[in-house]
Sequence to fold (339 residues):
Amino acid sequence: MFARMGITLLLGSLYMWWAEVEHFPFGPKEVRRLLLARGFGGFFGLLGIYYSLMYLPLGEATVITFLAPIVACWACSVLMHQPFTRKEQVAGFVSLLGVVLIARPISFFSIHTGDTPVTGGAADVVPATNATASTRLESVDNVTSAQRLTAVGVALIGVFGAASAYTTIRWIGQRAHPLISVNYFAAWTTIVTTTVLLFVPGMDFKLPSGLRQWACLIFLGVCGFIMQIMLTAGLSYEKSSRATNMVYTQMLFALAFDKLVFDTTPGVLSIFGSSLILGSALYIAVQQDPSKKSHNKETADRDEEIGLMANDDDGRFDQSNKQRQPNGVQELRIQTVRT
Fold:
């Protein structure tokens, strides 16, 4: 957490200073409280998944984490009255079902299916890999009930933290540059992790040993930096729930990189779960934005109303002309018609 978010904070600050981004570094005054809430929620979202991975199987921690997008969509519909249509709700739950089939929590799948579960992190989470999955499955067998219950509770706190981060990003919208929002999250996480490393016994800071570890660390920071920018920009510019539901597509990339890097072939359930996620994402992507749809309907109704008013005005104008015509003219027209 310290390395990844520290690199994100450094890169974000350097870019905004170089590009002279407006309101750098604290953002506009009217959204600073929301920016603080975004950093606070994002930190607890990150803490929730990391802590739960210590005591929960990888699949169960993943499924709990992926409750965040649905909670965020519901919160945006209640707090900001943003659209969360029935189609988007169904697509979100179908995507969550796909995550369950890929991660295969032990609580749901007690029978081993022959392929190791794959998991990707949430928006503010570093994805885990299958390289540590078997080791973790052995270590979680020694977890006590109290530790497991605590891990579930912390994971749920992480869900609400990540959901609050999504919600505040959409609430801020385009009033602040996406990198300012990213910097608040990175700064908060860096400050907390630095304090822990300095004052908590047993938590020591160690520099990478060797060129390979340095390269992996820098690569992790750069990828996390790019991911945070894209996520924040997408949630800021898109007011519907479609952008939030796209978070589930991380599982597709996790499966793809698992095959490319670790040569792990996904099983039938993983392929079926991936199909559910991909189908839901495509279905939501092609749907028209409900706000734009209602705006177009209002525009059409207004144009129709203007047209009707114009016809009424023309009718009243003809009728008034008839009333204003002299009697002689009317009699002359009647005689002409008779002839």
Observations:
- Confidence is low (pLDDT under 50) at residues 116-137, 329-339.
- The chain has 14 helices and no strands.
- Residues 290-324 form the longest helix (35 residues).
